[in-house]
Amino acid sequence: MSYSDRRLEVTEAAWRVIIREGLDRTSMRAIAQELGSSTGVVTHYFRDKDELMLFALERVFENLFEDMKTSATGRHGIERLEQMIFAVLPLEASGVPGWKVWVAFLGYAIGREKLVREHQKRYEFLCQIICQELADLQAAKLIRDDIDLTLEANALIALVDGIGTGVVINPQQFKADQQRYLVRRHIKSLLATSNSSISVKR
Q1: pTM
Q2: Most CB atoms closer than 10 Å: which of 44, 72, 137, 169?
Q3: Structure confidence by residue, pLDDT tens digits, 156-183
Q4: How many distinct helices (H) and strands (E) make up the chain?
């Protein structure tokens, strides 16, 4: 197994411990136990917990962006934006563990300026992606030309964050059809007048 593959294996073990125990109880020793190896094996690939957490955070974002890219393939217009947003929501039970890891990372970043900056960079990148989608929709006259694209991109991100966090705390809070409904309701508020009659499916 290559060095990079082994680092990913360590990261996946860290995710399992985080989901099961919480990030505050996720130690290098606990990750080593999850791997069935010694702590020395883990520290061979990552100097300390912060370095491992930063690498794990990067993998979370890579997976998120890949899901968004895949969902957008072959789609156009409003449907493309909807599917990109849906791709990162916990619509299925299989999507909840990833959200548990993400919420745990947010809490862990508090008081750790380097991790906070990394979160900020990734949120900014996500905002840029959604801003571009909104700009394309605006150019196509599908959404209003008087909206603040950055504000609306951040509003969509905040909506997704709220839904995802809510599902982590209470899995029954938002069913899949309700998650889609909330996203579509927000997007409908952005539509150009000629498109405002589009129904919000639930």
Answers
A1: 0.85
A2: 137
A3: 999 999 999 999 999 889 999 999 999 9
A4: 9, 0
